[in-house]
Write a structure and sequence with these properties.
single chain; alpha+beta; outer membrane lipoprotein receptor (LolB), chain A; Nuclear Transport Factor 2, Chain: A; 2 domains; 4-stranded antiparallel sheet; globular
Length: 386
């Protein structure tokens, strides 16, 4: 294994690594935007920590052999940058209308279709997972859910709606993301082999975050014990296939597999934005601000009680008005809050808190699930759980 000393040295986390100030500023800016992103942020996108975790995975999966550490990274990134068009097919155990990086080991596989167009100054892309689709083109970022004929269009901010899937689109961000992640990540175990003209890399990593309450355990790659396997061509260092498994109760369950990569799809244009989708324009610019001065349980109580008489003075502090009327009002108007539980934290994002609740809908149905609240500034914001 002496041939792989540079690789193993490179992969070992080093606590004295410092991310650049520019990168830290970018992270802080993104987190501020995400913190005020309005409607159902957890349902719409997952935070930067997941993308950073997957950045490590992609750095790992691109490792060739027989080079110095610096040459390894340079060559790996160049192998993707040389392709101006890429199409990727992947199968993921998920729910087709859920956020793009949501994983459930008990779900069936859903196919992802990913198309990337890159130039020196821009990257445009398209990701479809059945019922949920996103596209970044010259007119901005579009996200829509087909069954609802409803979506969001952003022109001012480029939100990370893809979570860790985003890292496949932006190889130039891999190194900085890796540096940021290694500041706090537990050490992973690596196995590297070369046979039959291929490099096989296996990474076994424990979940990051607080799981005293295991509510979000095994809902994302970072928030699970994972085994990731990558196969690369030993000559051109391009990824040929990949798989990710979660270890649940001691059993390995494959949850993601890259089934095909075309580095030169002929005239693969991005699909047109559907004309029948109702898009909310730039919802993040004037997003709900919450109610400062309330703790998480008080916030949940005020928010959920406002459903009973559909108090828009309160609801619009947590929900975009258009989203509130089109998506939530048909189900939740007239709902009665029956009880609130003790708030708890779970997972890798320290800004999120979960508040158990019991809600009686106007048709008599009982809904029990934790409300997800996020706090990145001075107020708790609605982040999911309905």
């Amino acid at each position: 294994m002496d041939d792989y000393k540079d690789i193993k040295d490179l992969l070992r986390p080093k606590r004295d690594i410092k991310a650049s100030q520019a990168f830290r500023n970018k992270i802080e800016s993104d987190m501020r935007h995400r913190g005020h992103a309005g409607f159902g942020a957890k349902w719409l996108w997952r935070g930067l920590t997941v993308g950073a975790a997957a950045a490590v995975a992609l750095v790992l999966l691109l490792m060739p052999t027989g080079l110095s550490a610096k040459e390894i990274l340079t060559d790996a990134i160049a192998s993707l940058r040389e392709s101006n068009r890429i199409e990727i097919k992947a199968d993921v155990r998920t729910v087709s209308r859920e956020i793009f990086d949501y994983i459930n080991p008990n779900s069936d596989f859903v196919e992802y279709d990913i198309i990337v167009h890159r130039s020196d100054s821009t990257t445009y892309w398209y990701v479809n997972k059945g019922e949920r689709t996103a596209e970044k083109n010259a007119d901005g970022l579009y996200v829509w859910i087909d069954p609802y004929n409803f979506g969001w269009h952003y022109t001012e901010h480029d939100y990370n709606v893809l979570g860790y899937i985003n890292i496949l689109l932006s190889p130039d961000k891999i190194l900085e993301s890796e540096l940021q992640y290694t500041l706090s990540a537990p050490e992973a175990k690596y196995d590297i082999a070369k046979r039959n003209g291929e490099i096989i890399l296996t990474i076994h990593q424990m979940p990051t975050g607080d799981y005293a309450n295991p509510y979000v355990l095994n809902t994302a790659v970072e928030e699970s014990e994972s085994i990731r396997r990558y196969v690369l061509d030993a000559q051109d260092h391009r990824l040929k296939s990949a798989s990710v498994s979660m270890v649940v109760d001691g059993k390995e369950i494959e949850v993601l597999k890259v089934t095909g990569i075309d580095y030169a799809p002929a005239d693969k244009a991005l699909p047109p934005i559907p004309a029948d989708i109702k898009f909310i324009e730039d919802v993040g610019i004037a997003s709900p601000s919450g109610i400062p001065g309330l703790d998480a349980r008080e916030t949940a109580s005020v928010f959920l009680n406002a459903f009973n008489n559909w108090d828009t003075e309160i609801l619009h502090k947590f929900l975009n008005p258009t989203v509130a009327e089109d998506i939530y009002r048909p189900r939740y108007e007239g709902a009665q809050l029956l009880s609130l539980g003790v708030p708890f934290q779970s997972g890798a994002n320290p800004h999120l808190i979960f508040v158990p609740y019991t809600l009686r809908l106007r048709d008599g149905q009982i809904q029990k699930t934790p409300l997800v609240l996020a706090n990145y500034s001075d107020a708790w914001l609605f982040d999911g759980g309905l």
